[in-house]
Design brief:
By secondary structure, the protein is mainly α. The protein contains six helices and no strands. It has a single domain, classed as Four Helix Bundle (Hemerythrin (Met), subunit A). Helix 2 packs antiparallel against helix 3. The longest helix is centred in the C-terminal third of the chain and has 36 residues. It starts with a helix and ends with a helix.
């Protein structure tokens, strides 16, 4: 157990806390939930930075970090879709969650084939994650009123994140395609 892994655990612990706060009605609780979500998102960057900087990358941290990322993103999306209950939030939410599940399965497949490095996190994935986190923080910080300027801005950012999500999925699929194609061959 090292500092980067402890930060990842802290991110996981923040998930139910920001979720419970978001479910308590009131503008101040929305803001506090968004701040906790933002803190969790910041630890995503910080634990990776510290793991590389301090040479403390571990197989456990490599496994746990993406799990923690998906937990905070999916939890935020579920909360927001439930609160906003409209197609404008549901559609990008479905795209983002579907892509996360698909890419997780692809990474697992590639690891089984000893080719995990082909679908390693890229700069495109980091930009996608940043857009997602900012969009979700903006949406969590505001009551679910589609007439509010900041909610509209959050929707726009979430659509940009969904487009980046699809783009990064295509890039990962392109990189993995030769290995996937070999997996379809019954002669192998």
């Amino acid at each position: 157990m090292n500092l980067p892994n402890l930060l990842t655990f802290a991110r996981i612990i923040l998930v139910p806390i920001f979720a419970i706060l978001y479910l308590i009605p009131g503008e101040s609780t929305y803001l506090i939930a968004a701040l906790l979500f933002g803190l969790a998102a910041f630890t995503d960057w910080l634990d990776g930075y510290l793991a590389r900087r301090l040479s403390q990358t571990t197989p456990f941290g490599t496994f746990l970090d993406p799990v923690a990322d998906k937990l905070i993103v999916v939890t935020a999306l579920v909360l927001l879709i439930g609160a906003h209950h409209n197609i404008w939030l549901t559609l990008p939410g479905i795209i983002i969650v579907s892509r996360e599940i698909f890419i997780s399965a692809l990474r697992e497949w590639m690891a089984e084939m000893n080719r995990r490095g082909l679908v390693a996190v890229s700069m495109l994935g980091k930009v996608k994650t940043t857009l997602q986190m900012v969009a979700l923080a903006v949406l969590l910080a505001n009551p679910p009123d589609p007439e509010r300027y900041l909610v509209i801005a959050g929707y726009v950012l979430l659509y940009a994140a969904a487009l980046m999500t699809l783009w990064s999925m295509v890039v990962y699929l392109h990189a993995a395609w030769p290995t996937l194609k070999d997996g379809f061959d019954p002669q192998q």
